[in-house]
Structure formats: C-alpha cells, structure tokens
Write a structure and sequence with these properties.
heterodimer; A: alpha+beta; three-stranded antiparallel β-sheet; elongated; B: mainly beta; 2 helices; 23 strands
Chain lengths: 288, 272
Amino acid sequence: MDELINTLQEWLSEGRIWTLTRVVLLVGVGLLLAKTLRKIVDQMLKRRASTHIALLTQRIVFFTVLILFLVSAMREMGFNLTVLLGAAGILTVAIGFASQTSMSNIISGVFLLSERPFVVSDVIRVGEVVGEVISIDLLSLKIRTFDNLLVRIPNETVIKSEVVNLTHFPIRRVDVQVGVAYKEDLKQVREVLAEVAERNPLCLEDPEPLYMFQGFGDSSLDLKFCVWATRENFLELKNQIHEEIKQAFDEHGIEIPFPHRTLYAGAVTEPLPIEIVAGRISGESPSP
Amino acid sequence: MYTDTIADKAKAAAVWGEYALKVGQAGCWKIGELRVWARRGEREWQVAHLPGGRLGGDSVHAEVPSSDFAPPDDAERLRLVFRQSSPVIRFSPALADRPIVVRSQTPLRLMPKESAQLFVTTPLWVRIDFAGSSGSVLDVPSVRLSDTWFGASTREGQLCYAGRVDARLRLEELVRVPYRVLTVFVVENRDAESLALDKIALPLPHLSLHREPGGAFWTQSVQVQRAKNGGEIEVRLNARLPVVTEHLELVAPPRKRIERNSALKALQVLMG
C-alpha cells in the first residue's frame, strides 16, 4: 500500500498535477461548449427544419465538439494520437464488417431524412403495412397501424420498397365502383350520381366529380364515379358517398344487379316448366 | 338603395345581440339554415345546434324564452360547466373562416382596359359566447357550404367554400338577407387581353366585418388589378370601406392578419 502511495506521489510530483488539471478543464469546457452549441442549434432549427433534422444536427454538433476536446485532452495526457487513430481505423473496419446491416440502415436513414418522402405524423403504406409515422430513427422507421400496433421497419427495407404517402397532398380522390342493370338509362344514372355529389358538403366542387363508363360487365354496366375530399374528410366521405349512392339509386328505381347466370344447353333448350301447387313449387320434366 | 325590406332589417338587428335568460329558461334561434337551442342551468349552459341543410328554410327567428329545450336527436349538443352560469348568451356575426369561391355560371370576361365592380353576398358565420367568459362556444356557418379546392393543380392551392353565392354587377339586383354579408369586388384590367373572371376566391378571413345602422353587413372591398402586357395580377384589400354606404360600424376585425409571405402567396391565387 505504501509502495502504491509512493508511486502516486512520484507521478504527481513530476508536474503532472497541472497536466491533470488541464485535462479536466478541457473535458469540462468541451462538455459545456458542446451542450451550449447543441442548445443554439436547437433554437436555430426549431422553426426552420423538421424535428428529425434538428435532432440529427444537434447530435452531430454535440459529439464533434466533444470528441475534439477529448482528443486534445488525450494529447495533453501524452497519448500518441497517430497510433490511436491507426488503431481506431482498424477497429472501424472490423466493426464495419461486423455491422454491415446496421451501417446500411444508418445510411438509408440519412437518405430518408434528406429525401423526405414523408414526415412524422404522415400516413404511409409500406408493403402491406398502413399507418401513421411516429418516428424516423437512424436504424428504423416506426409506424403505428390503425389497429394500434407498433411496426418497426428497417430503413434499408423502406429505401428498397415502394412507399405510398397517403397524406402528402391536401386533397384525395374517392373512387366508387358501381354497376347498374343493363336496362337502366345511363344518362339518368349519371345525373343521379352528380346530384349525390352535389348534395354532400364534404365532396369538393372543384376538382369536379369524374364519371367513367368502364365497360359491359358480365351482369352489369360497370361505372366508376370519382369524387374529391380533403384528406381529413376522406374516410367520412368514402362511407357517406356509398350509402348515398345506394339510397339515391333506390329512390330512382335504379337497379344495382348481382351476378346473373343463364343456363343454356344449346339452341333447342326450352324453358323449364314450373307449376305452383298449393303454395309449393314443383318442377315437371318436359314431355318428349 | 337595395331590395332589403324593413322587416328583414328589423329581424337582422333583432337576432344578433345579447339574450338574458333566467336559470331554467331556454331559447331557440334560427339564423339562415342554422338552428340553435340553449338552456341555462345554475352551473351550466346546454347548447345544441343543427347545421344547415337538414331542416331547410332560410329565415331569421329568435324565441326567447322558449317553452322548451327540445333539440332533435341529430343536433350536436354541448354542456358547458361554470362556477356560476352567466345570465347572458351572445350571438355575434363573423365572416367565413376560409375563402369562398364565387363561380360564374356562364364564362365571364372583363374586356381590355376596362374595370368593373362586382357585388357579392356570402353567408355569415354565427359566433356564440357568454357574457363574462372568454372564447366563443360555437363558430358555425348560417348556411352550410360545400368544400372546394381553389388552385392551379391538386398539389397547390387552398381549401375554400363553394356555392350559395350571389354575385351581381348592379347592387340593386341583389336580394339582401339578414344573415349574408356584401363584399364589393373591384377589378381593373389594364392589359390588352381580356381577363377571365370565371372563378374568384373571396379572401373573407382577411377582411373585417362592418354593419350599417339599419343592420345590413358589409366587408372591406377587394381590389384586383391586372397589369399591362400580361403582367401579374395584383390584389389589394382596401382599407377603406365601400363608398356606397356611410356610417359603418366595425363589428369584427379580420380573423387572420396578413403576414407578408403567406398572405401574398394566398392572394396570388385569388383568381382562377
């Protein structure tokens, strides 16, 4: 024990107290400066940049300043930085090989932040996942689905896959697929649809509703009716417009047909005779 | 000066203002298509309203105190709790919270080197609050308007209201109703080409609301000038009030102040 105290006294007597003070001062000042700069960057970017860009810049500033001061402190303590940097280089390569996936995610994260295909609180679809973006982190994207599940998608996957941002533009189109019976007057159907859109206050007057005849279907004349809504009212209008179309068709006697099948066994097929006997229906095979 | 009846004016003056109710008493109001019911309790106010469109009608009517507080089932209801309920409920008029698009049914062109005055009436918004408490309880339109998009594309533009707008070139032709407000829109075309006036977005949130002593409402006038040689369209919200009336009293300041960049950007798309 005495030996240890003696060694320490010798080490300190060689003018190292001053060195130690300088090291502590350098680390302290570095920490203080890094924190102050982080606050300044936060104030500067609060209104000008998104939360994620601000957070990322703050971290970069904080760690750069701190590392610079730590390196200076280590030099004061007599470390040979060339050797240290060489070792760090080798270590970086080793870590790089070991953490290829993480690095790929980090780089993808940086691209996502710079490209900004979506921001926090946007509703997006990635593959089969639809939900609200709750955070864009360095390694992954976190989405809250509408059934309240947290989905973590690696940034690399997001970069590689097709992403649909459902709330990027302020207005959206609701497409209604509807079929009417072959007997119906298409002009009247068109007028009824236009009236339904006009009556609904959530349906935007401009862009005007779009009516498209899509073809002669198996059982119906296939139509597409497209109306516009604000992104906030999209779901409400989607529900309302279907109900209102059905109601308006019922009021005007317009039939929405279900699939029809006609049995045909050749040119000579005759209709099957049906006889009603005391409320019961019985079939009789045709006489030869 | 315009086809506004004395009865309408009296009604207009009567429906806006303060109503004192005792504890347990109720009231029923009808302004345009909007219906409002309110009942005062000792420590609460119950307020119900039915936006326009469902019950129809467009008159102005107030029944205070009314026999009963019986709003229909589909009315939107609110219960407001106080330490001690205020005895006075207040109905104030306001301008729309978004621009309203005025659309001409037949294409309208302003000929080169010409100017024109358009008189446009738009529905008022109804603000309800209580004397002695801050903030309004309801801020709803007297006539339910459809949403519409006003802009060069579906990517850029602004959300507005559409329809139920009456615009005329002569003031005398306008039928004035007590829950609508009149805006004078002055357009000047200095260019050698005619100027299309098919769609105009009236920037009502940026305008102030004024009232004649008789009860009719006016906004500041809006001036639009198209520069020579296909130059930019310059929009000015006139600080002065329309010269057609005198002694206008300020009822409500603009909802939104014009902040340089955003307002100028918004006003650039005033005409589509």
